[in-house]
From TrEMBL:
SUPFAM superfamilies hit by this protein: 2Fe-2S ferredoxin-like, alpha-helical ferredoxin
UniProt GO molecular function: 2 iron, 2 sulfur cluster binding; 3 iron, 4 sulfur cluster binding; 4 iron, 4 sulfur cluster binding; electron transfer activity; metal ion binding; succinate dehydrogenase (quinone) activity
Name assigned to this protein: Succinate dehydrogenase [ubiquinone] iron-sulfur subunit, mitochondrial
Organism: Cocos nucifera
Localization per Swiss-Prot or TrEMBL: Mitochondrion inner membrane
Functional description taken from the UniProt entry: Iron-sulfur protein (IP) subunit of succinate dehydrogenase (SDH) that is involved in complex II of the mitochondrial electron transport chain and is responsible for transferring electrons from succinate to ubiquinone (coenzyme Q).
Swiss-Prot/TrEMBL cofactor(s): [4Fe-4S] cluster; [3Fe-4S] cluster; [2Fe-2S] cluster
Length: 233
């Protein structure tokens, strides 16, 4: 009976082993080392690396004048790769200042055409550097200060007279009658707001005034289109 029980247990154990799933043998230290020596196959997306963008060199001829060395102003040429630069003229100026010549001086702030700080003359036309695209022509792009303005340094001009003319028209709100409720704001109707279309967009960049010949020849007396626009408003 004892021998029969042993044989029964052995046969049951063998049958149970046949029902268990089979697994591959665990790797040895030698097989693991050999596996590490097998080069990994590159992914399909890595077989053809993207080709580098071709270099696109552009020359910028920029007005330079330093009050600490008040010699004759000159145009200085700078070459940059447009493939590594943003699309706007202001992007090129910032790249030149950061990577080529830190002494280059110009105004900038919002980079969105709101503040008017980066107004300058680009290839003969006044405009904002942050909104002016870099010309695609191979010829050099010439950048100078706003015309007929006193230059402080490089592309920075003195805006004192321009702001004084703006101030002279007193462009702030002035009531003829006292408010019905002192200290309480007076809401503006949509109809009154619509009257300001075409007049409130001015950001005082001085591009229009410095483009006007009358402003060039008589800047002390002629207020210029920017100040007159705010006076009309």
């Amino acid at each position: 009976m004892a021998a029969a029980r042993i044989l029964l247990r052995r046969s049951s154990f063998a049958a149970a082993r046949r029902l268990l799933p089979t697994y591959p043998p665990l790797p040895t230290a030698a097989s693991s080392a050999a596996a590490r020596l097998v080069p990994a196959q590159a992914h399909s997306s890595q077989t053809n690396p993207p080709s580098a963008q071709p270099k696109r060199t552009k020359t910028f001829s920029i007005y330079r004048w330093n009050p600490d060395d008040p010699t004759k102003p000159q145009l200085q040429n700078y070459e940059i790769d447009l493939a590594e630069c943003g699309p706007m003229v202001l992007d090129a100026l910032i790249k030149i200042k950061n990577e080529v010549d830190p002494s280059l001086t110009f105004r900038r702030s919002c980079r969105e055409g709101i503040c008017g700080s980066c107004a300058m003359n680009i290839d003969g036309d006044n405009g904002l550097a942050c909104l002016t695209k870099i010309p695609s022509a191979e010829s050099p792009t010439t950048i100078t200060p706003l015309p007929h303005m006193f230059v402080i340094k490089d592309l920075v001009v003195d805006m004192t007279n321009f702001y004084n003319q703006y101030k002279s028209v007193e462009p702030w709100l002035k009531r003829k009658d006292p408010p019905p409720v002192p200290g309480k704001e007076i809401p503006q109707s949509k109809k009154d707001r619509a009257k300001l279309d075409g007049m409130y967009e001015c950001i005082l960049c001085a591009c229009c005034s410095t483009s006007c010949p009358s402003y060039w020849w008589n800047p002390e007396s002629y207020l210029g289109p920017a100040a007159l626009l705010h006076a009309h408003r």
